[in-house]
Design goal:
CATH superfamily of the largest domain in chain A: Butyryl-CoA Dehydrogenase, subunit A, domain 3
Largest interface: A-B, 104 and 103 residues
Shape of chain A: globular
CATH class of the largest domain in chain A: Mainly Alpha
Number of helices of chain A: 24
Helix content of chain A: 40-55%
Oligomer: homodimer
Chain lengths: 639, 639
């Protein structure tokens, strides 16, 4: 910084008054059209049998969660997604909302619910045809037949296309023979497989008359009612985990396991009575992506449940931060923790981000729900990117919330610690986050190339010229007044500019790396692709919250705008190095953005607890004693 | 960035060949003069009774850990620190090394060891006098009398000076009466209190004849051999936690509990037979800091044990990353995970940082050990800062290592997940990290003010002029060749420059904020203080590793230099926003530093596993199956 720049250091703008919080309106916005089912689930979870219990063995915990699942299934929660013809409601949005709400209570319950109704039942719905629906959905949707989604294998891991289990057509018997080709190729990490599952949707390479038609799914009975494995099946228990121990993850090995021809889920490819393989999808690549399309809805709900956990943790930590007093300018313990800037900075941008991401995911649900089962690269890419962004965010936010509650946060009864152990696997399951960011980034690059080849060099050069112009405009790059920084158009402009430049740069670098060494090219640009995916998600999330700001009434719009500003400023602050390297932001603006984060925190501070009321988590479900008691003077009975 | 800057974008320098790893020399460096005790503990931990076990109830786990503790105490490990006159070795360094080594095995064991021998026994050693030593050390040092370090209270939390328990002198009976003044003021989070502790060092406000002499420590029996509480004592169980469940944390309430006059640990203040309070330390503030000086050694070992856990996690994840193959440029699963840049960037800077911090902590031990018990603000500040920096680093690194092992990392048997649950509380206990960073930063500001008042304005202005000169020197700020970036003098220059500017800025801001509103001043500058503390720790750590580079022989120096470069480049990269805002670094140099992190990762990649061999963790202790098997083809037996 030169001395003249130093002289121009901006003074922080005065903190604006906090907007009022219309809790009912905020809750209505977050609940959306599914408020009915959400309220129903919330109400059910306050019943005494759902009381949180800690310190059980993982064996006992699995049974408790199974009991909870059956209890909720008795109300038809598992059938929300099922067509009316089979006793359901045909409402995927209601199903996703119920799933998301369960995650306020217990993440093992939410995941067991997701395995049974999202993955297992979902695979029958999406990949099966009428016979499968009529035969299996009635028992599956009531939780009477517990199922397993047997996709993952130990050996192939994230590389689903190269999984090794085979299903070979035996024309003589009109059966498929399922085989685990070697001991390390077993199915692994399958929810419901260790104890409760009786049938599995098994993903396998389909071999018919010596031809491999790629990955297909078959329904395979794995366990009898008495718990013993079916013939040819070996079952294993994945064992004790860091968290999520209420889900009975297990392993399956297949040795010459036979199922009838009809058990192939044959909507996108099957073998007729004549023994001939037919598929409505010509391209085997497109068929593969359609087959694993069941994961797209799963990824969206993984994001939604991660947010439920984050909201619980933030609601607890913010309540504690309002009550717990430590130190004080004049001695004694007079200062609520939430008055400390470090405390505010750890909790309040996260609070804003959790709401912004909730709105972004809801918007994605709006696009996904009407076309479920259809391949849509943009929805798939965004589901992947939002899943990765949201779960990494959740991991950080819950860690910070735990730490903000000190030792109290480390106690199981205060719940954040339990959420912390559970949430770690969110970054891994339904697709490793690193792999998912690359999936999104590669999609963006493909789109970019198409655009480029369609519209040509002129447009690309135009875009670059625009960017360069902006960058060379020191007025914009240094503009530091708060009205400018809070202008949604300039906020979005910055996010768009970053994404476009990163896309340009990634394409350019990839081309250069391909020339140098095609086999190493992807390694060379991998970190750029990760950054590009993050930039894309933040731009999309900003657009989503801004739409709601514009749509909101006067009782909600100022609050939503503040949440948007907080999300934006803290996202830019995390990436200031890049923005400054690119010349998009210069020192005065960079400093003003840091001040803006502080000011947003100060504005949010008095209303933070009210905002968490907008999540509508019932006190019985939130449950943590530190969220209720006056934290410095609480009374406890000795055990 | 202007177009001319764009044209000057540096090409990444070619990756240099990896230095060779002299595992024996690296291990000798890390083990230091205490290699004998380290080898002894390592050897003991390979015995079959120390095999890792998972899935026990926390009640059973506590008993297993107690058995382990007694087993190790039988060898005199608990007496290492005790003077030879009482059967010990009088060797604080050996004690700390043993403690650090135990943390490779099980963090609950390490902490129970630390509670008994570091905190409880340490308080008798440091705060007691001859009678206490002769009376209690023999039983305590053998683990025959389990003790509790009863400092924390629920109400006062981090604010030890304002704790509420009282010890009131009863002249008539020549006794002290210990009292918990209200139910929320009980002692909380005390290791050994829930089940095994029989005596406690109780920190209480000492009242003599109506005068409060501040916080003092007394030895108070709390539990009889049969497990029942002593008269007037109420004991509670803190309960199930996120991790560390092998330690029986508990609560204590005191109701008119009486101990003889001699039970006051009276080295720094006591009551004579005449009932008069006397202290060798005049200032009550200095007396307080001396009393809680027992925490300084504790903070250093907290840092060391966090590093042991991190090294275990990295050793496991790097072994897995070398064996596990996923995807590949030509299809199939042919690429070891560690070939991916994202994977390298998550594990290898952490590997370098763990060694740099190890060396920095060892240097602190060198300064601390000879003067243990003496108040030394610089050692106290650095112990606080390194504890905070190291434990936050450990939390991130273990989270990343877990994630780099995917689902396998989430399994208890692969250990990282267990370490993850344990390590979270490291950021909280022995002083909340946020509080500790402020302690360090305030110490630096005090020093700065003293220097300023001693040497005056001239020197300060000189320093600023130097900084400004450097900043205005575009040659240095833009210099981007790798030889320049790897020059330790310029590296240290950058770190020093940052620290000095932050110190200047923090002092200036604090002055301005004090003028505006003295009661809010600390809140206003809190985030600057946190940043200053971090900058200080990174500068000190860089100096420590550079000393070792200079001292090392030719078989080790190139490796240590690479570890230094990696630590430095990744630390600067994390804070690029600040460096660019300050004008110390401009775009070309910033980009070159990003490339340098990539290049350092590439250089470390082929030798990463060998480097972890330098930690000397025995395979029986590392234990994780994924660190041994070929990860894609492992064979498992079903349960």
């Amino acid at each position: 910084m030169t001395d003249s720049a130093r002289a121009k250091r901006p003074a922080p703008a005065p903190v604006r008054p906090a907007p009022s919080v219309d809790v009912a309106a905020l809750r209505a916005l977050l609940d959306g059209p599914e408020h009915g089912i959400r309220d129903f689930v919330r109400q059910r979870l306050t019943e005494p049998q759902f009381r949180h219990r800690y310190g059980m063995s993982h064996h006992d915990y699995r049974e408790v969660v199974f009991d909870w699942l059956r209890d909720l299934s008795s109300d038809g929660l598992g059938a929300l997604h099922v067509p009316e013809a089979y006793g359901g409601k045909g409402d995927i949005r209601a199903f996703m909302a119920a799933f998301e709400t369960l995650a306020y209570h217990d993440l093992s319950l939410a995941i067991k619910f997701g395995v049974q109704y999202g993955l297992f039942q979902g695979s029958i719905l999406l990949l099966g045809t009428e016979w499968h629906h009529a035969t299996f959905l009635p028992a599956v949707s009531k939780g009477e037949l517990l199922g397993v989604f047997a996709m993952s294998e130990l050996g192939s891991g994230s590389n689903v296309r190269d999984l090794e289990t085979t299903a070979t057509w035996d024309a003589a018997q009109q059966e498929f023979v399922i085989q685990t080709p070697h001991p390390g190729a077993h199915k692994e990490w399958l929810g419901n497989a260790a104890v409760h599952g009786e049938m599995a949707t098994v993903f396998a390479q389909l071999h018919v008359d010596g031809t491999n038609h790629g990955v297909h799914a078959l329904l395979v009975p794995i366990r009898r009612r008495d718990g013993s494995p079916c013939p040819g099946i070996t079952l294993g228990d994945t064992g004790l985990k860091e968290g999520l121990n209420g889900v009975d993850n297990g392993r399956i090995w297949f040795d010459q396991v036979r199922v009838p021809r009809t058990h192939l889920l044959d909507r996108f490819g099957g073998v007729g009575e004549d023994g001939v393989y037919r598929s409505p999808i010509e391209s085997s690549a497109r068929r593969f992506f359609t087959m694993i399309g069941t994961l797209v809805g799963g990824r969206i709900t993984v994001g939604l449940t991660a947010l439920s956990a984050t909201k619980s943790a933030l609601a607890i930590a913010i309540r504690y931060g309002n009550r717990r007093k430590q130190f004080g300018p004049e001695g004694g313990n007079t200062t609520p923790l939430l008055d400390y800037r470090t405390h505010q900075r750890r909790l309040l941008p996260a609070l804003a981000t959790s709401i912004v991401l909730d709105i972004a995911l809801s918007k994605l649900v709006d696009r996904f729900a009407p076309t479920e089962g259809e391949s849509n690269r943009e929805v798939e890419g965004l589901a992947a990117g939002l899943k990765a962004y949201t779960t990494w965010f959740a991991q950080r936010a819950i860690t910070d919330a735990r730490e903000c509650c000190g030792g109290q946060g480390y106690l199981a009864e205060n719940r954040i610690a339990v959420l912390r152990g559970d949430i770690d696997v969110w970054t891994t399951f339904e697709g490793d986050n690193t792999v998912l960011y690359q999936l999104l980034a590669k999609g963006l690059l493909t789109e970019y190339k198409q655009e480029f080849s369609e519209i040509g060099v002129i447009r690309l050069l135009g875009r670059r010229a625009r960017s360069a112009l902006k960058a060379m405009n020191p007025v914009t790059a240094r503009k530091d007044d708060e009205d400018h920084l809070r202008d949604p158009a300039q906020q979005l402009g910055l996010l768009r500019d970053r994404e476009e430049r990163m896309l340009d740069a990634a394409a350019r670098r990839l081309r250069a790396a391909m020339k140098k060494d095609p086999l190493r090219a992807m390694f060379e640009v991998q970190d750029h692709l990760m950054h590009l995916a993050e930039a894309h998600v933040e731009r999309v999330a900003h657009e989503a919250i801004q739409e709601q700001v514009e749509r909101a009434g006067p009782s909600l719009a100022p609050l939503l705008a503040l949440l948007r500003d907080t999300f934006w400023a803290s996202a830019i602050e995390r990436d200031l190095g890049w923005f400054m390297m690119s010349g998009i932001i210069e020192t005065p603006k960079a400093k003003a953005i840091r001040y803006l984060v502080n000011n947003c925190c100060e504005e949010l501070r008095p209303i933070a607890e009210e905002i968490t009321d907008g999540f509508g988590i019932p006190p019985e479900v939130l449950a943590a004693p530190i969220a209720r008691r006056t934290a410095n003077s609480e009374q406890r009975t000795a055990k």
